[in-house]
Amino acid sequence: EDKVVQSPLSLVVHEGDTVTLNCSYEVTNFRSLLWYKQEKKAPTFLFMLTSSGIEKKSGRLSSILDKKELFSILNITATQTGDSAIYLCAVYPSGNTPLVFGKGTRLSVIA
Amino acid sequence: DSGVTQTPKHLITATGQRVTLRCSPRSGDLSVYWYQQSLDQGLQFLIQYYNGEERAKGNILERFSAQQFPDLHSELNLSSLELGDSALYFCASSVGALEETQYFGPGTRLLVL
Which of A26, A71, B13, B108 is at a distance of 20 to 30 A from A2, taking alpha carbons? Predict the structure, then answer.
């Protein structure tokens, strides 16, 4: 069974800290991995990582994919209270199989 | 704002009832996905439609059904509702059918009493 595991489940940090969120997966025929940020309601897309794009960066957020070790990390530097959210990792196992989501990491950034 | 719209935002109903949730995808997107999110289960994929046809099926109960119409909007029908069906229901859309970035709507919060 395809599986995506995120850790930690929750995290509390102070503004300015750097955090690393982890996502490991066990899927058949990995195709791509996606990160989403979920604040009050809808998940919003952050990054997609594939075999041809194993590192992505946008502002203070960056992510890498290790296809050999079957994991990805999401890094947030100089955290702000606005980064408080649930961060979801999801994987496409194969061409015709839908996204499999992890249960998320709840990040709380306190002033 | 992702461009995906969902109605209603909130729905309160009783056990045994039937409800319909509606989703309009982003302009130009042909795929629509339905997800259920509850506190203990996380985001669970229910079903995908691509250009009017069912494309993939997840853990969707037999009491639930969906369809995508010619104008590409989609409806998720939930019948014989049970307390355990209370959850957030999200719709997402993407341009194509495979390995696409999915953009999520704001969700419908369903409460079954």
Answer: B108
Question: Measured between beta carbons, which residues in chain A are less than 8 angstroms from residue B56?
Answer: 96-98
Over residues A73-99, the pLDDT tens digits come to 999 999 999 999 999 999 988 766 788
pLDDT tens readout for residues B1-55: 889 999 999 999 999 999 999 999 999 999 999 999 987 778 899 999 999 999 9
The count of CB pairs under 8 A between chains A and B is: 51
Torsion of CA A25, B30, B93, B91, to 10 degrees: -110
The 8-class DSSP code of residue B72 comes to S
Contacts of A51 in chain B (CB under 8 A): none
Q: For residue A76, how many C-alpha atoms fall within 13 Å in the half-sphere facing its CB?
A: 25
Q: Which two tokens stand for residue A43?
A: 């998940």
- pLDDT given at position A97: 72
- Do the Cβ atoms of B45 and A95 come within 8 Å? no
The pLDDT tens digits of the residues spanning A9-60 come to 999 999 999 999 999 999 888 888 999 999 988 999 999 998 777 889 999 9
Answer for the pair B3, B104: CB distance below 8 angstroms, yes or no: no
Q: How many Å lie between the alpha carbon of B108 and the closest alpha carbon of chain A?
A: 9
Question: Which amino acid is present at A97?
Answer: T
User: Is A70's pLDDT higher than 80?
Assistant: yes
Q: How far is B99 from chain A (nearest CA, A)?
A: 6
